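Assess this one:

_____
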Amino acid sequence: MTSSVDGVAVPPWLRRVVHRTPADPHRINPVLDRRAPRGAITREAAVLVLFGGPVEADPLMSGGLPAGADVLLTQRASTMRQHSGQVAFPGGASDPGDEGPIATALREAQEETGLDPSGVRPLAVLEEIFIPPSGFDVTPVLAYWEKPSAVGVVDPAEAERVARVPVHTLIDPRNRFQVRHPAGYQGPAFAVDGMLVWGFTAGILAALFAVSGWEQEWDRHDIRDLDTVLAELDNDLDDDHLTHGHGRPAAER
């Protein structure tokens, strides 16, 4: 379920994303069904799914998606104990002083990327999703970047990269496939700008795109080995003399 923030104006091109429940019409996205086992001890967390771009929809594009639409992503430091090198939404664990998941998502995003929270318009809160390796119950917070501010890596020990990734690049069928983890997980993935987006982050994006009206048909039967894809991306980065490492995946996010 999606719980919209009352009284907040939603850009026309984001209305379906905000007002419709994220979906998995082809049954290839296991992330949406993750709930904590009965009696499990969990920790509360939140992530910021922050879309930027023009307010007005583009009438010539599917779903009205503007040419400049993007989403904010980070790449975790390869030295981190959990989820090293993985691409994620900015976010993290709740603090006792946080007044709900929106406050947590904004605070964590500011700490990780340096963004100014006053320029962010929260739009909706999604249902919690359980992350088995870390034991977090994560609440995705959908938001619109009303007044974008400069962002970048604040603490290299936590993040190697902060990027505004074009939505048009993410929905390009050439950049979409499924990955299979050695532990058995299989789910949607995106290859963008030298990064592999998979697991929890890819699951949320895929579920939102499925109801957005922006999605283009892509090859869901293209299933690739996760380690192989990561190795190929690392080799490409080495060839281009870039320094953003991907690390080895821990357990599936």
